[in-house]
Specification:
About 40% of the residues lie in helices and about 20% in strands. A hairpin with a 6-residue loop joins strand 3 and strand 4. Helix 1 crosses helix 9.
Length: about 290
Amino acid sequence: MEVGGTEANVLVALSLLGLKTEFISFFPDNFLGFKAISELKKYGVGVEKVRLIPEGRMGLYFVELHHRSKGIRVLYDRRDSSFSIGVLSDTDLEFIRKAKLIHLTGVTPSLSEVCKSNVIKICTSKKDSQILSFDINYRKKLWGEKECRRFLDIILPFVDILFVKKEDYNLLFEEENNEEKILYKLQKTYGKDKIYVLTQGEEGCSVLYKDEYFSQQAYNTDVVDRIGAGDAFVAGFLYGYLKGKDLKNSAKYGSLLASIKMSIFGDFPALDRKTLLDLLESENNRSVER
């Protein structure tokens, strides 16, 4: 059994890189809830606002590992989880307003109407000075395309950094193969003042901010476990951004951290800070040496 989840994966990676992080969630008041809290604390993630509640259960997912050329299969078992019924309080929202950057994903609102409401509350109550990062991270096994798109149209006006997989764009918006056209279409719809990041797995990523467009290659690695690679990319990009790096270096950090993660089993790039930082500063063009 491994502890993980898309938002938690991002925070663990950022914490391992030395940033202060806080996780807000609801877990069941049993040994599984304690296990999850202990795992987050082990990697340095703040859990002050993680609450153990008597209602609900732990959300689960099961992974069937195939040959690395065939990918993986995931089965979700998340209905009636404690997380899906926990309502954010005004105190929670005040706590969130202390953050420099807030990171959310499309997995959370797919779980329940309560979760949708929680995400909308966070988006609409954030301060103008706060950065809101959102990874669409569409899961067709959790909600439909039309429902997801309607929700995105509500919250994307509040988002400052948007991450979207190319395949998700083609499912939720329209079929388009050209990466540059995809990003300019998003910009035309949602505004020029956002950073748009289009991820393409082994083909790397493309980034658009105002009139600056560029692509970043992916880095080769020996694949052990693909789970969490997208979250590691997001963490690497946000780390670079928060450290004042330009967008090209932020994208490079994202690609490198995703490569590192795929060489490690589990949801997190669980290496010591010095090793991670040394690898992120590597000038090796095509591979990560471990």
